[in-house]
């Protein structure tokens, strides 16, 4: 026999007893003021889980904490000193705690100001990894960035395909693929993912208008992928200069850039003057040691008989 629980004609659980058992085994927090709503329902990306002792049963060791209402793990953001859950957020000092120990009783208990300050100091922020992506206009940076985010986050492409909600879509993109139909005819398919203001799909113009950072989390790391306006802008070298200034200004916001990915066309016979200009501009801004963290990437290779060795030979011969 199972007991089901309904609320507003919606089934909350088909096994009420089991749910209550789970609830009773959880350490919960309660916000003494109303939770502030965030923009949309997106959890603050920088918040990390907290492992605090119970303020009442202090010697019991460190515990995981969930929100008493939404039952999501509560997370702390070092930058704004707030706790986050699906209900919203509020300052950490507004929260009271109740662990699952039967000896604790039913009351929610707050930390003293001093102890809370000490505990907060011990919270480690997420490790941040910043990756700068530059490349020629139309090389497919946005699509490549989406692919990179999924590549970092999943072991195999099957893991993404198993559930379409798994797919990480950082940037709305649009691209064409050519597929062979069973009757042998080639068929052009347009793939479009999401919508945005930062992309300009007008033909001939660089799609990404200004530098923009896209973040996602994986394994306690915060990945920040910096998308930049395309090099070799059809509006000319002056536009390239403006774009490079924009890129430099943008990356100066970050303490460290951990990797620079340079996206190149696989069918390029030699480096264009505007690409050379932008690449040199970029290099003078960095310490010489940055060279070790520059990676050349070649998207869209499937349609070409692509050989990296041939390509690199050309770079070295001409530059
Ligand atoms: Zn909540
Ligand atoms: Zn307790």
Automatic annotation (TrEMBL):
InterPro entries this protein is in?
A: P-loop_NTPase
Please identify the protein, giving its name as recorded.
G domain-containing protein
Name the source's superkingdom. Eukaryota
């Amino acid at each position: 026999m199972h007991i089901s629980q309904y609320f507003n004609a919606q089934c909350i659980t088909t096994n009420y007893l089991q749910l209550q058992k789970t609830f009773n085994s959880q350490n919960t927090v309660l916000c003494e003021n109303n939770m502030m709503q965030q923009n949309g329902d997106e959890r603050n990306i920088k918040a990390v889980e907290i492992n605090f002792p119970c303020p009442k049963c202090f010697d019991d060791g460190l515990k995981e904490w969930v929100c008493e209402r939404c039952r999501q793990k509560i997370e702390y953001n070092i930058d704004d000193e707030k706790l986050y859950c699906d209900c919203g957020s509020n300052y950490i000092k507004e929260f009271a705690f109740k662990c699952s120990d039967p000896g604790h009783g039913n009351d929610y208990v707050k930390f003293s100001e001093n102890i809370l300050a000490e505990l907060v100091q011990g919270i480690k922020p997420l490790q941040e990894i910043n990756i700068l992506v530059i490349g020629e206009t139309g090389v497919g940076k946005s699509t490549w960035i989406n692919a990179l985010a999924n590549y970092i986050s999943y072991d195999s492409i099957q893991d993404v395909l198993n559930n379409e909600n798994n797919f990480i879509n950082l940037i709305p993109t649009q691209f064409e693929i050519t597929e062979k139909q069973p009757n042998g005819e080639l068929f052009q398919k347009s793939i479009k993912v999401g919508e945005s203001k930062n992309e300009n799909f007008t033909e001939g113009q660089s799609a990404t208008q200004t530098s923009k950072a896209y973040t996602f989390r994986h394994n306690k790391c915060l990945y920040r992928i910096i998308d930049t306006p395309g090099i070799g802008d059809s509006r000319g070298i002056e536009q390239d200069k403006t774009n490079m200034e924009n890129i430099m200004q943008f990356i100066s916001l970050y303490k460290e850039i951990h990797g620079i990915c340079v996206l190149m066309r696989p069918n390029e016979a030699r480096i264009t003057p505007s690409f050379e200009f932008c690449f040199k501009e970029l290099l003078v801004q960095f310490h010489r040691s940055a060279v070790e963290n520059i990676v050349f990437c070649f998207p869209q290779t499937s349609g070409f008989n692509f050989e990296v060795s041939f390509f690199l030979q050309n770079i070295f011969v001409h530059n």
